[in-house]
């Protein structure tokens, strides 16, 4: 859980650090665990839409 929180803190501090994965969604990879955090940058906030377990079927990727 600490690694997920650290990734979210990095997103909070530097939201444009991660590239766009889909049209408006950015994807941050979590260190040490196979998770991806999908988020968007809105006008005044950052919205986390999904935390995806990368061990799942890649077809289910958000």
What does it look like?
Helices cover 19% and strands 31% of the residues. The protein contains 1 helix and 3 strands. By secondary structure, it is α+β, with helices and mostly antiparallel strands. A hairpin with a 4-residue loop joins strand 2 and strand 3 (46-53). It has one domain. Strands 1-2-3 form a 3-stranded antiparallel sheet, with helices on one face.
Task: Set out the fold topology.
Elements: H1 2-13, E1 26-29, E2 35-41, E3 46-53
Antiparallel strand pairs: 1-2, 2-3
Distance between the termini: 21 Å
Order of helical and strand elements: HEEE
Number of helices: 1
| SS elements, strand count | 3
Summarize the structure.
This protein has one domain (2-60). Helices cover 19% and strands 31% of the residues.
Features:
alpha+beta; 1 helix; 62 residues
């Amino acid at each position: 859980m600490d690694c997920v929180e650290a990734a979210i803190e990095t997103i909070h501090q530097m939201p444009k650090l991660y590239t766009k994965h889909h049209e408006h969604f950015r994807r941050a990879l979590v260190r040490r665990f196979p998770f991806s955090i999908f988020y968007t940058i809105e006008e005044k906030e950052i919205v986390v839409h999904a935390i995806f377990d990368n061990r799942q079927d890649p077809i289910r990727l958000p």
